[in-house]
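Appendix C. Worked example: dTDP-4-dehydrorhamnose reductase
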Amino acid sequence: MQGGYRLNTLIIFGVDTVAGSNLAESFSSSYHVIGICERNAPEIANCEILSGGAVTSQIGKLLDDLKPERLIDASSAGDSAWNPQATVGSEDQCQTSANLATACAERKIPFTLISSDAVLTGPWMFHEESSEECCTSIIGQRLLKLEQHVQAVSPEALIVRTHLFGWCQSTENTGWIEEMLEDMLRGKMNSQWSQPGYATPIIVSEFATILSRAFEENLTGLYHIAGAERVNRIQFARRLAQQFDICWYGSGTNTSHYTDAERRSFGCGESSLQTRAIRRELCVAMPTLAESTQVLCDQSQSVLFPMNREQPVSRAA
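Step 2, the predicted output written as C-alpha cells:
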C-alpha cells in the first residue's frame, strides 16, 4: 500500500544483476517490486527480495502465489557485454528465462525480456531490430534462440535489446564500474579497455524511465533501447574518468593484433543499436553518454562509490 492505494506487483527476475537491481530500485516508487534471484541477493529499499534455488526452480508455483501484474526478466542479459566478470547468456540462465516466458504466457502475465545488443555484430554501424547481422558466438546464438522462443510462446511479450551499465547493488561482489573507477584513481590501464567492439551504452535508471513509458503504451514485440552515442571500450572509460574528474586518459586503442575470430566474439563486434522505432512509438529521445554518466555521478553521492581523493593519481601512458 502507498498513499492508501495498492501498488501493482512487479516481479524482477535476476535482481542480482546490475540491470535487475537498478530496475528494482527505479520501479520501487510505482510498483510493489518483488526481486528474485538464486544467490547474492542485494538489499534494495522498498523492495521485497526472494532468493534461493527452491524459489527459482518452482516458477509456476511462484507466479500462482504472487500473482504479478507484470514480470521483467533480467537474468540472462542483465549486465554489459563488456563486463568480463558478468555471466551473460549461460545455458542455465537462458533455459530459466525460456521457462519463465512460457509460464507467463500460460497465465497471461505481461512478460518483458532484457536482451543484449551483442547478439548483433558488424559490418553495419547502427542495427535496426530487423538486422540479420548476428553474432555467431555460442552466447550470441543462445540469446537469439531465447528471443525467438519468447516471440513464439508469447507474441504479446516485450523484448528489449540494450547495453546497460550502472552501480552494483550486491553486497557480495564489486561491480565493473566500481572497479574501473578504482583502477583509474590508481592510474592503472586494463587490457580489457582496448578490446574491439562498439556499442551504445545507457545507464539503467534512464533505461527504466523509457521502459516505463513502453509499459504505459502496452508495447509488444522487439525494440532497441540504448544510448544516443556510439563508443568503444576505451572511449567509454575516458568519458567515465572525465565525468568523475579523474586525471586519467589511458593508452590509445591498438586493435591491429585482434583476429577476425576475436572480433566475432560476444561483445567484441559492432553492436551499436538504432533506436528509431522506440523513439517514434514513444516520442522520446535517447540519453547521450554524457547524460548517462552524469546520472551515474549524481547517484554516487548517495549510494555507492566512495571517491578517495587522497590517493595519488597519475596519468597512464
